[in-house]
Amino acid sequence: MSIAIVPVVLCGGSGTRLWPLSREKYPKQLLSLVNDDSLLQATLRRVQGEGVALQVGAPLVICNEEYRFVIAEQLRLMGVSGRVILEPVGKNTAPALTVAALEATQDGQDPILLVMPADHVIVETAIFQKAVKLAATQAEQGNIVTFGIVPDSPETGYGYIQKGESLIEDNTAFKIAQFVEKPDLQTAGRYVDSGEFLWNSGLFMMRASVWLQAMMQCRPDILQAVQQAWEQKQDDGDFVRVDKVLFSSCPSDSIDYAVMERVANAETSLPKGVVVPLAAGWSDVGAWDSYWKVLPQDDEGNASKGDVVLTGCENILALSSSRLVACVGVSNIAVVETSDAVLVIDKNQTQEVKKVVELLKVQARPEAHLHRKVHRPWGWYDSIDMGERFQVKRIVVNPGATLSLQMHHHRAEHWIVVTGTAEVTRGDEVFLVSENQSTYIPLGVTHRLANPGRLPLEMIEVQSGAYLGEDDIVRFNDQYGRS
What we know:
Number of helices: 11
Structural class: alpha/beta
Shape: globular
Strand order of the largest sheet: 21-22-23-30-25-28
Number of domains: 3
CATH superfamily of the largest domain: Spore Coat Polysaccharide Biosynthesis Protein SpsA, Chain A
Largest sheet: 6 strands, antiparallel
CATH class of the largest domain: Alpha Beta
CATH architecture of the largest domain: Alpha-Beta Complex
């Protein structure tokens, strides 16, 4: 008999640890780091298909508003129809999971929730699916299950879980003895040598009602705040919006601190905490050195993607996004090139990249937040050149998509269509602009751009004026709910 499972994908993230490839408004879970799938798509795909032997329902994706349209588009490209729930502010993982549990139980259902961060890599899908099936039988019994990664080195960047009493004869599930904070190197070595400790993966399984019961016992303040915000939710097309004011008052806490550490070896009325060991090529891709480990390497330990030439190098990571990257006679470094930034860093110092992002924020530089290529609900634009009083953008509008009816106070725009056909609203006029044709939008005139065709519309926009910032937009009508 199959067990009903709802995947819950936690899609938060600050976009700092894999800068410059990852940015605050386009974090690593949206990137295709290992194969053609983004990490979000790979997370969903590994619980689909043959071999799962489980009844897997439509996923619940918990994210913030900044990249909701990119997430919706990635789900659409997969053919996955899930619910995207928007957190107005980040409150850590315990409130996010509570929102998911309330959604999962609102129609009288009580599925098992498979809780997965959207930004992890798991290489051995079949092994993961087997562990999920085992964990589901434990969750079905009312237990709260986490997956502990079998360690292959004394890592100091992860928390650890100590295994307690074995619950199954083949030693594939254990009571949780205790959670341990990130250790120093010597302590981590003792943990690995003992065979009693596993890395804390951040993956969980439990019935939705069991999680809500545990929150009632452990953090009733969080449960009450989330319930109040959930009761005032609004459906907004493809998205569910939790009430911003009420959710903002919710305390912040993680799943581990709020519940898991309290159910470890619990002898109380709390659910039992269970850990299932997992050895499936897991990585949280938490820094450039860990990303290097999950990529294929040559005989000298070098890993590369994109247009890269290496000679006389050892143990380096080299990534190219837009131009040739050549490395000669270097070792143990990461070189990451994007269209607007280049990072060169010692692989032993990769956790320090966040200091660069902090400096960029202090300097109010856009590279901390955005790529040069910016995704929008209607498509994307790439700022390909900029001067004191002009900016040139390459714009691609998806078939059937429409930009907002808007006006600019400080700039005029010239539009040149490269491929496709544009429907242009300019003041009271509505007309078509075809390939190799152009039009002009004077300063202060209301206008709208739409793609009425079945193919992407590509155009070049030349802006000119005294101020060219994206905040010089007055929107009069917008189908995407932006103010």
